[in-house]
Design goal:
The protein is mainly alpha-helical. It has two domains: 6-69, no CATH class; 86-189, no CATH class. The chain has six helices and two strands; from the N terminus they run ααααββαα. The protein has helices at residues 6-14, 19-37, 44-53, 60-69, 144-156, 166-189; strands at 111-119, 122-130. β1 and β2 form a beta hairpin. The radius of gyration is 23 Å and the shape is elongated. The chain starts with 5 loop residues before the first helix and ends with a helix.
Length: 190
C-alpha cells in the first residue's frame, strides 16, 4: 500500500526524529499560543513579529508554512461596503497634519470619528477621539489613524460577533479596546 519495502518501513519507524522536525514541532507550540492568545486574528506576519520579539529565530515563510499545514487561518475580513457618497461632499480641508502622526506633547494633535456597530436592537454608534491631529477642528483627511483603528476593531472583533443588544456590543467592544488592543499596542512599543 505504501509502495515501500517492509524493511525500509521498519527502519523508518526506528529512525529518530530530525532536528528540523523537532524544531518545527516546538515552534508550532509557540505559534498556536500566540494565535489563540490574540483571538485568532493574527496572521503569519504579526505572529512572526511577536516570535522574533520574544527571541525566537524563524523566518516569516516558515511561520506561514506551519500555520498553513496546521490550518491556523486568521478570521477573515468582511467585504467593505460604501455608506457615503463622496461626490457630493464639501471641499476638503487643507492637510495640516501632512502625515506627521506623532504628537510632540499632550493636546497637540487630535482626531475624531464615528462608526456604526450592527446589533439586533439596531445600530450602536461608536464615537472616538484620539490625540493625533494638529487642529482643534479635525478634518476628514486627518482621520486616517482613527479610520485605521475602526478598521482593526471591525476586522478583529465586530465582524465575528452577532450582538443581541447594544449593551452586549458595548461590553465586547470595551473589552477589545481596553484589554486586547491596548495590551497589543503596548507589547509592540516595548
Amino acid at each position: 500500500m505504501l509502495q515501500v519495502s517492509q524493511r525500509g518501513y521498519y527502519d523508518w519507524l526506528k529512525r529518530p526524529e530530525s532536528k528540523r522536525a523537532i524544531s518545527n514541532r516546538q515552534l508550532l507550540i509557540e505559534i498556536r499560543r500566540i494565535f489563540y492568545a490574540h483571538r485568532e486574528v493574527y496572521g503569519a506576519p504579526r505572529i512572526h513579529r511577536t516570535l522574533t520579539d520574544e527571541g525566537h529565530c524563524c523566518s516569516l515563510n516558515r511561520v506561514a508554512r506551519l500555520m498553513r499545514i496546521e490550518k491556523l487561518l486568521p478570521k477573515t475580513i468582511k467585504k467593505f461596503r460604501i455608506t457615503t457618497d463622496s461626490r457630493n461632499s464639501h471641499t476638503p480641508s487643507a492637510n495640516l497634519l501632512n502625515r506627521h502622526f506623532d504628537p510632540g506633547g499632550p493636546n497637540e494633535k487630535w482626531v475624531a470619528d464615528v462608526t456604526y456597530i450592527p446589533t439586533r436592537e439596531g445600530w450602536l454608534f461608536l464615537a472616538a477621539v484620539k490625540e493625533i491631529v494638529g487642529s482643534a477642528k479635525p478634518a476628514p483627511e486627518y482621520n486616517a489613524p482613527m479610520e485605521s483603528f475602526f478598521h482593526r476593531l471591525k476586522v478583529e472583533q465586530v465582524h465575528h460577533d452577532d450582538y443581541r443588544t447594544r449593551d452586549e456590543a458595548r461590553s465586547a467592544i470595551s473589552d477589545y479596546i481596553e484589554i486586547f488592543y491596548i495590551s497589543a499596542a503596548k507589547t509592540l512599543l516595548h
